[in-house]
Amino acid sequence: MTSTVTTNRSTASTASTASARTLPATVATPATRAVPAAAIDTPAAAIDTPAAITAPAPTTDAPATDAPATPAPDAPRAHAPGEPLIVAQGLERRYGSGRTSHLAVAGIDLTITRGQLFALLGTNGAGKTSTLEVLEGLARPTGGSARVFGHDPYRERRHVRPRQGLMLQTGGFPPDLTAAEALTMWTSTLTAPRPVTAVLADVDLADKARTRISSLSGGELRRLDLACAIAGDPELLFLDEPTTGLDPESRARAWELIRGLKERGTTIVLTTHHLEEAESLADELAIMHRGRIVRRGAVEEVVAGHPATIRAALGAPTVPDLPALRGSSTLDRRGRLEITTEHLNDDLLALLTWAREHGVELTGLDARAASLESVFLGIAGSDPTGSDPAAPADTTAPPASTAVNATTTPAA
């Protein structure tokens, strides 16, 4: 019988087959998701899972080929270019039943290749976490299918779990443990753990090894969660909001670590509310809205075809007719001008030339190319079906041309 480890900062009981190692019954490290006990393959002991879940020791009935030998931490992983690692087809996840049910994931198709860093973005309630939980093997899909390493991640989790690491949104450890003790406890469950000192150094916690959990800051706790996720050197890494609570310096270091993992060939699935994080790190991204994927591609592909904007306040109460523009423009009674255009450079030059010739002062001139943020905000305000009327769900247009981003006030 399988019970559930519910990670809500309370100790949960598990009824699962014993693994090769036994965790202390007093260990409690919660997260925000309900994790099936069988998905963790830990012994029947009172535990909570940390926010990072990485490769547990394999069960005795698992064939030796299920968990290939882990390469040296700095050795690149060998894989065929474009080889699919995660494949979801018509994936659905529904909560409840009957008229009160809610379809959180509405039949999405998704392929993530080996060695790729894939960012999954979305508005609140878009279905990101529900999708991740299915791909991680923590939840059963209502419809469609998911395959990870060629296996169903829920039904065949023993083929998948030893090869992946999870970092959930929040987590914690017993407050009386030190950082080194907490990580040591966690690595005792792994098949091929890396040295604790090396992992702590990777996440800039070497100087906090003897510091108790209760004395760590929120950002340091988050880095400890990340340490648990990478301690088993997983082939596949799920990072759910990995830099939440980190200061800018720590966030930059986390990015550097994530890039290093990717360069080794680790496949990474990332969710984040920091759009600049996705822009900086991701090879490819998808934006979810109301259970559907409404954009997918490289950042350049996702923003291609979305208009740029030019804004300025005109200094004079009355001005000559505006120049001929390739985009559309609006001018309100206060003299505030806004131009929406797919030809930013041409229209910006036309506006500046017009202002100089007519002696019109442009105050607070702001010219912005289309960005991931503007696309995201456009989707968030799109129609309730989840589609963005500006473009099809999968954008395959060529990358947008380099455009001017400037804020200036030209002389009249």
In short:
The protein has 412 residues and is α+β, with helices and mostly antiparallel strands. It has two domains: 84-301, 3-Layer(aba) Sandwich (Rossmann fold); 306-392 and 401-408.
Ordered list of secondary-structure elements with their pairings:
Blueprint: E1 4-6, E2 34-36, H1 37-40, E3 52-53, E4 84-95, E5 102-113, E6 117-122, H2 128-135, E7 143-148, H3 157-160, E8 164-167, H4 179-187, H5 196-202, H6 218-230, E9 236-240, H7 248-263, E10 267-271, H8 275-281, E11 284-289, E12 292-297, H9 299-303, E13 308-314, E14 328-331, E15 336-341, H10 344-358, E16 362-368, H11 372-380, E17 406-408
Describe this structure in words.
The protein has 412 residues and is of the alpha+beta class. The chain has two domains: 84-301, 3-Layer(aba) Sandwich (Rossmann fold); 306-392 and 401-408. 24% of the residues lie in helices and 24% in strands. It has eleven helices and 17 strands. The protein has helices at residues 37-40, 128-135, 157-160, 179-187, 196-202, 218-230, 248-263, 275-281, 299-303, 344-358, 372-380, and strands spanning 4-6, 34-36, 52-53, 84-95, 102-113, 117-122, 143-148, 164-167, 236-240, 267-271, 284-289, 292-297, 308-314, 328-331, 336-341, 362-368, 406-408. The strands form four sheets. A seven-stranded mixed sheet has the order 3-8-9-10-6-11-12, sandwiched between helices. It has a five-stranded antiparallel sheet with strand order 14-15-13-16-17, with helices on one face. The chain has a three-stranded antiparallel sheet with strand order 5-4-7, covered by helices on one side. Strand 4 and strand 5 (102-113) form a beta hairpin. The protein is globular, with a radius of gyration of 25 Å. The relative contact order is 0.12.
